[in-house]
Write a structure and sequence with these properties.
Low-confidence stretches: 5-30
Number of helices: 2
Shape: elongated
Distance between the termini: 40 Å
Order of helices and strands: HEEEHEEEEEE
Strand content: over 45%
Strand order of the largest sheet: 1-2-3-4-6-7-8-9
Radius of gyration: 19 Å
């Protein structure tokens, strides 16, 4: 999976979510509480290091979330010729519970999953400073059901928050999940 493809996918995800958010606010009266923010999380994933980048639109308690989440197996960074990885590109719907300062958003949706896993052993590899083992690279893609639960605490500045995220994706290839520490940035409250 090339970084160029991931970068283009993130741009498309942001554009689609942004277009939905702008069309969803058209015609609402000014008493509705609408917020938009991004979040970035890093932590433990199964199997490896988990990460998530998301854009959330909240209108009252309804939330639409566009996210890119994934897991990278850390042991393969040192023991193979490529790391195993899995990413999902998802759109989720959730409901916010709590106050303006502390809130919980459980959500579920639909995703496109893409990843790389290690195949058959090909023999020793003699590149770089450390000898490693070479393996066949198997690329895959699938449709998944992503889910996540975000718990955020908004700081006194209404444009920054931090919290915890539990995420996962159920798919036929490589189901995955993780727990992340994350930051929020954007319009979090009035």
């Amino acid at each position: 999976m090339s970084m160029k493809w991931v970068g283009k996918s993130i741009l498309v995800l942001v554009a689609v979510t942004g277009a939905f958010c702008s069309s969803a606010t058209h015609g609402q009266d000014s008493s509705d509480a609408s917020y938009t923010w991004g979040s970035l999380g890093v932590g433990a994933g199964s199997p490896g290091v988990g990460m998530s980048l998301s854009l959330t639109y909240r209108n009252n308690d309804d939330c639409i979330i566009g996210r890119v989440a994934g897991v990278l197996r850390i042991n393969d960074l040192f023991g193979g010729n490529f790391p195993e990885s899995v990413l999902d590109f998802g759109v989720l719907y959730g409901r916010a519970f709590g106050s303006d300062l502390v809130f919980l958003i459980p959500s579920v949706g639909l995703s496109f999953v893409q990843g790389t896993r290690r195949g058959a052993y090909l023999g020793p590899s003699h590149g770089g400073y450390f000898p490693t083992n070479a393996y066949e690279e198997i690329k895959y893609s699938a449709v998944g059901i992503p889910a996540q639960c975000q718990l955020f605490i908004v700081t006194p500045a209404p444009i920054f928050g931090f919290g915890l995220e539990v995420f996962g994706d159920l798919n036929k290839e490589v189901p995955f999940g993780g727990v992340l520490v994350s930051i929020q940035f954007g319009k979090l409250r009035n």
